[in-house]
Amino acid sequence: MIKVTLPDGSARELPQGATPLDLANDISKSLAKASMFAKVNGEEWDLTRPFEGDSEVALITRKDDEALEIVRHDTAHVLAQAVQDLFPGTQVTIGPAVEDGFYYDFAREEAFSTEDFEAIEKRMREIIDADLPFEREVWDRNDAIAKFEEMGEAYKAELIRDLPEDETITIYRQGEWFDLCRGPHLPSTGKIGKAFKLMKLAGAYWRGDHRNAQLQRIYGTAWLDDKQLKAHLHRLEEAEKRDHRRLGKQMELFHFQEEAQGQVFWHPAGWTLYRSVENYMRRRLEENGYVEIKTPQLMDRKFWEASGHWDKYRENMFISSIDQEEKILAVKPMNCPCHVQVFNQGQKSYRDLPLRMAEFGSCHRYEPSGSLHGLMRVRGFVQDDAHIFCTVDQITDEVTAFCELLKSVYEDFGFEEPRIKFSDRPDMRVGSDEVWDKAEAALKAAAEASGLDYEYNPGDGAFYGPKLDFVVKDAIGREWQTGTIQCDFNLPERLDAAYIGEDADKHRPVMLHRAILGSLERFLGVLLENYAGKLPLWLAPRQVIVATITSDADSYAEEVRSAMADAGIRVETDLRNEKINYKVREHSVGKVPVIAVVGRKEAEEGKVALRFLGEQGKTQEIMSLDDAIALLGERALAPDLKRLA
RNA sequence: GCCGGCUUAGCUCAGCUGGUAGAGCAUCUGAUUUGUAAUCAGAGGGUCGGGGGUUCGAGUCCCUCAGCCGGCACCA
Asked: CB under 8 Å to A64, separation ≥6 — which residues?
């Protein structure tokens, strides 16, 4: 007999060779039915895998979050079997569970088509209906390699070869078909259910390296039941509606065209929004002790060579030359070398530090064509960039102050707290290891002093220093980096930045590269998606539409518009010969936050009827024009100005 | 950049196996003066992404280029 202990501390005796499933059945039939897999002494364990002696056991049921992961992983196995059944000669590679579903990467000469999905899904359902048991087998390493090679599964053989020597090689069978897999799996394919759907086809490099062969990836989504699946598909549809590219068109904010690939044509409404954000940011920077500068678009390549950008990013830099001159100018891909030029003018003293130098810096980068994505990834963009020149001792305070400012800005824009990543030295970098040790230690200490909750992202730092990145999510869960702060001991050296210390000697300052919004373009994209286009009053390009009910109210409407405009409200009239229903609908669809309805009654009484977006069905607020102006004027203030008021 | 898909009116999209293009909305014109999410009627609008080919004939088939979309890779 063996003794198993459950999480609540209770213990049971089971015969030798008993499995977690036996345990579950011993407790109750319903538990056995709901169980998906087990954790035995902390290790993930199939329900049908016998205990290996006395154990501590936790049964994971459908209610647990981890259950979904198993279902997805199992669905990936079923997908692989279905594909190999239908398309002989296709090699399998890897197929993990991911957020919302799973994928499987296949190697096959011919391309799959989404038209194949129907047949594949059908075969998958057959495999699930067959209720094939998942059977775990431990194999000898060399036998496994030989077997997979014999089967023509070169990728699988390579995977096994690269596993650590002491790793137990397990394969899982489902009927005739089997795959190398660590497990665990459900007891049988029937337990997976059918709440899955193949979603999309994509290319993906073997082991994520573009120098390797490209595989064909099939993405699917999988859930515990149809209701969850439907809900997920519905979420995707809703997310599509708040795609900033679609909103940009609907709200006439901006457009793109192929003659200026990756660059934005801002329309009047979009530019109004852009300026609201920029002006807000400018005030926040000023309030926080920054000075603002503006530097050239084109600069001699020698500065980029000195900084190291030319070596690392030459391929991604636009250059400019002119017939009359030999020299090559680079269109600036970033602002730091320019800021060092400003810093280097005149002699700086330790008393000047920390010097916080900001620029709404317009930059251009030749981003790979496949990476361009609406406003989120462009070739021409503006950063709310700044460089803080400071001493080593000042790093912690400056990082802390920066993080505080960033949090406050994000709050003003209505964002949840962003995810934070700490990235250290990359393989391709400048500077000695000693300098990197210093920079990483300083940044980490500062992050910890600021009480940041960050994840470690090894090897992903900038080539000149480690960084903290701030990441937000878009409408369909894709993540975009916005803010950043980077600790740099290298560029001051390479670009010869210096200040005179207390000791009257020359010293190198540390540069903290930092941005809060990152690229204004990207931030606006994220902002639009975050609000699904329904921007708060202070950001809305058109804040109020004065809509008339009959033409009798035209002159009064103009009076209202003019008074509101004088109070600084962005307001327009709609005097068209249309029904009020029509106007209300059109401006609501157009995401105008406030519609001021005026008819004969309002004109006679000097009032307006305010209707607020997103409050459909709620009664309008009727008030005097003066009260309306006071109310809207106050509500339309940017959050920082509201705090001052 | 790589893999796959898409590109038809200002916008959103139909157009089967090849027989010289269609809807809704928008626009314009007229009528209607209207009380909180689409008033009615009429009209105009397209070298079907560019180039090349097959064919008696191409929006439809083939090649090629570009852009966009979805991933991957990249992201100072």
From this structure: A36
pLDDT in tens, A340-376: 999 999 999 999 999 999 999 999 999 999 999 999 9
Task: Give the pLDDT confidence of A152-193 residue by residue, as tens digits.
Answer: 999 999 999 999 999 999 999 999 999 999 989 999 999 999
| A589 Cβ nearer than 7 Å to chain B strand | yes
Amino acid (1-letter code) at residue A133: P
Nucleotide closest in space to A609 (CA vs C1'): B36
Any strand B atom closer than 7 Å to A386 CB: no
Amino acid at A645: A
Question: Rounded to an integer, what distance in angstroms lies between the CA atom of residue A279 and that of residue A275?
Answer: 6
CB contact at 8 A, A460 and A491: no
Place of tokens 């902002």: A527
- Sequence-ordered alpha helix ranges (H) in A164-243: 226-241
Contact assessment for residue A189 and residue A195, using Cβ atoms and an 8 Å cutoff: no
On the question of pLDDT at A450 being above 90, the answer is: no
Helices assigned H by DSSP within A479-599: 491-494, 520-530, 554-566, 580-589
Mean pLDDT of the residues in chain A: 95
* Residue listed under structure tokens 């650590």: A164
Distance A139 CA to B61 C1' (A): 52
Name the closest nucleotide to A601, judged by C1' and CA: B35
Model confidence at A617: pLDDT above 90: no
- Return the bridge partners of A467, or none: A423, A486
Token match 């029509």: residue?
Answer: A582
Model pLDDT for residues A383-425, shown as the tens digit of each residue: 999 999 999 999 999 999 999 999 999 999 999 888 999 999 9
Give the nucleotide at minimum CA-to-C1' distance from A464. Answer: B76
Amino acid identity of residue A126, one-letter, is E
Q: Mapping DSSP to helix (H, G, I), strand (E, B) and coil, where does residue A369 land?
A: helix
| CA–C1' gap, A417 and B71, in angstroms | 28
| Closest C-alpha among A64, A62, A38 to residue A52 | A38
The whole-number pLDDT of residue A618 equals 74
Q: How many CB atoms lie within 10 A of CB A46?
A: 24
User: What is the set of active-site residues of A?
Assistant: 336, 365, 383, 385, 387, 467, 513
CB of A445 closer than 8 Å to CB of A397: no
